[in-house]
Amino acid sequence: MVAPPKSSFSAAKLFWHLAAAAVHMICMTIVIPGLYLYIKKLTAGDVTTLGWAFAAYPLGTVVAYSFLKNSPLPPMLKLVPAEIDSDKNMPLRSEDDAPGKPFVPKPFTKFTYGFLIVLGIAGNILYAFSPHAACVIGARFLVGIAGGSMVLTHKHIEFSTSGDDPMVRSRMVMLGAVQTFGALLGLLLGILLAAIPEFDLLNHSMSQQQMCGLLCAVLYIIVLFGIWSTFQPICVEAVKHVDVVKGEMDVAPGNYMGFSRFGVLVPAIVYDRGQARPSSLPDVFSTAVVLVVTFFLNNLMTGIEVLHAIYCVDMFEWKVLDISVTYLAFILAGVVGISLTLSLIEEVPCNRRLFGGLVLTFVTYGVMLQPNTPKEQYIGFLVLTGCCYFICDLALVEIYIDKIGEEGDHRMTAHYKKLLMQWMHTTQSYARILGSIVTGYIYSYWTNNHISRRPYAVYGCGFAVALLLVIMCIIFYKRFVLRSQELQPGYVAKEPLGPQQIKCMDE
Predict the structure, then answer these.
(1) Residue 329: partners with Cβ closer than 8 Å, 6 or more residues away
(2) How far is CA 402 from CA 89, 348, 416, in A?
């Protein structure tokens, strides 16, 4: 057996990767509340343009992810058996590697990382000085590509521990916490900038959204300097050791998409607590059902995000500051949902938590089916829906990971886990892209043709989707029981991780 190499890094090298993850999340959330009012001022800006602007960011991350997902290891979709070592482990190599040749990883250099961050800088500057609504769509697409570099951030943190399981679990939770902090910080910065009156800069009037774009560009410049000065390529020996022992790191948090609201936090929590230990009996049917539920649930959340600013402007005549504060409450409700789930996770099975969250979402949408909605009731709707989403999201991740199943070879087990988690995150990204575009066109159609029935159309779609999800949960309720706990009644979840001490000196 190959001894684990001592190549873990920490201190500044780890800090700048985490800082990059936080900046990606800041750039995603800081512009969302005021995006509609900004587009409305530009040439050819309307509700449909807003839908495309929301879709541009996740589309950019998908494009970047499609090129970066197999780094730094070779592609894992074409694997052939190699020689069996003395401990009967069966490492696998890419078909591109000749038999007998040593395994050579293909890490990306800091030039790739730097290029993606430069795209983020260019996208934010273009956003700040966009003369046309189409430029906003292009700018958000470039920023989305920069957010797709979360793949490289994730990989560097993943291999920063040389395969040490407790430490990599700890750092995955740390990455999720940093991403959550970045998402909330982006909204807080947007609120602060909304309080600053417009001013002239180089004979150009600077609004709140333009200041947000310039601030994000400055943050990316700082991160670029930090990454460039401290970048350390992933150790070849560490990748070889992990590849021989178990392939891609045996971790559930494979969420590389920068547009996820709290990043990798939800799958990291599931992995850390050990609630979903895969059994030896994969349940392909249940995994497919979970993907369908995930797709529609993310469509509901996307619809709320796209329509929030439009609805508040049309119904309540709110400004950017009011919209930003209520959107922050919407996101903070997700923190409450996660905290509530963690307090119930030991006593309440995941299928009951999923069913309860879906039923409450269904009832909340039903209450909103009325011609006029008071401001207080709308804010309550945001808080309840945001809380319920993360209760359901945590339960779905538990169920999904649990149904993957164990293989005889650790390398293939890790491969299947990574592959299926990619399917789940791809489903979420397509839901966000399609949901954003479709929502914009639905709202535009009912505004221009049947404005008196618009509230029924807006909330009726969500009500119908929530009803469909409740029915699906009732039908597959028993299939959503954790199979590992079902087959292993004596199974005890691993203890949550304690605080991790990050060294100030590299080994």
Answers:
(1) 379, 382, 383, 386
(2) 24, 16, 12
Q: Give me the chain's average pLDDT, please.
A: 79
Domain-embedded: residue 492: no
Q: Is residue 383 within 8 Å of residue 330, measured between CB atoms?
A: yes
Name the strand (E) or helix (H) holding 92: strand 92-94
Q: Which tokens go with 389?
A: 């989403």
Total count of domains within the chain? 1
Which CATH number characterizes residue 72's domain?
1.20.1250.20
Residues 6+ positions from 461 with CB-CB distance below 8 Å: 303, 442
172 vs 126, higher pLDDT: 126
Task: Report the C-alpha gap between 502 and 436 in whole angstroms.
Answer: 40
User: How many helices and strands (H and E) does the chain possess?
Assistant: 17, 4
Residues near 249 by beta carbon (within 8 Å), at least 6 away in sequence? 158, 159, 163, 168, 242, 414
Helix (H, G, I), strand (E, B) or coil at 246: coil
3-state secondary structure 6-27: CCCCCHHHHHHHHHHHHHHHHH
Longest dimension (CA), the chain: 74
Q: Is residue 1 part of a domain?
A: no
Residue 65 lies in a domain: yes
The average pLDDT across 183-198 equals: 90
CB within 8 Å of 406: residues ≥ 6 apart: 278, 279, 280, 413
- What mean pLDDT do residues 222-234 have? 86
Is 311 part of a structural domain of the chain? yes
Distance CA 47, CA 40 (A): 8
**DSSP label at residue 43:** B
Min mean pLDDT across 60-69, 209-218, 302-311, 362-371 is at 60-69
What is the model's pLDDT at position 93? 43
The residue range of the domain holding 173 is 11-484
Tracing tokens 């001022």 back to the chain, one arrives at: 41
> pLDDT per residue over 72-114, tens digit each?
543 333 333 444 344 444 444 444 444 444 444 444 567 888 9
